[in-house]
Specification:
Number of strands: 7
Oligomer: single chain
Strand content: 35-45%
Distance between the termini: 40 Å
Largest sheet: 7 strands, mixed
Shape: globular
Helix content: 10-25%
Length: about 100
């Protein structure tokens, strides 16, 4: 039995980001419980971010940002034309990195 795709979002960079249900449960139960029941927020950030940064540490890791009640960050890994979610969380400021896209 394969992994069930839970979320799939096309970003402004043309990258299709996927998340399995199993991994989403890990993110919201272990890494950042504050993001529980915030799937729509994550989809909105990926599909319509305010800014996208490339990680200074890993050239294939991108940070998507959008401000709602606070700034939210969705961290993903790009692999050619698709990618996957690493984590997501609220933040007080944009992390260091190279801005590669701005709305």
């Amino acid at each position: 039995m394969g992994k069930e795709i839970y979320l799939e979002v096309l970003t402004p960079l043309g990258i299709k980001i996927r998340v399995t249900r199993e991994y989403w449960e890990y993110v919201v139960n272990v890494k950042h419980p504050i993001m529980k029941n915030r799937e729509e927020l994550v989809k909105e950030i990926l599909s319509n971010p305010e800014e996208i940064y490339r990680s200074k540490v890993d050239q294939n890791v991108y940070l998507y940002y959008k401000k709602f009640d606070k700034i939210y960050c969705v961290v993903v890994k790009h692999l050619e034309k698709e990618g996957y979610l690493i984590t997501t969380y609220p933040t007080d400021k944009i992390k260091e990195g190279v801005r590669i896209w701005k709305r």
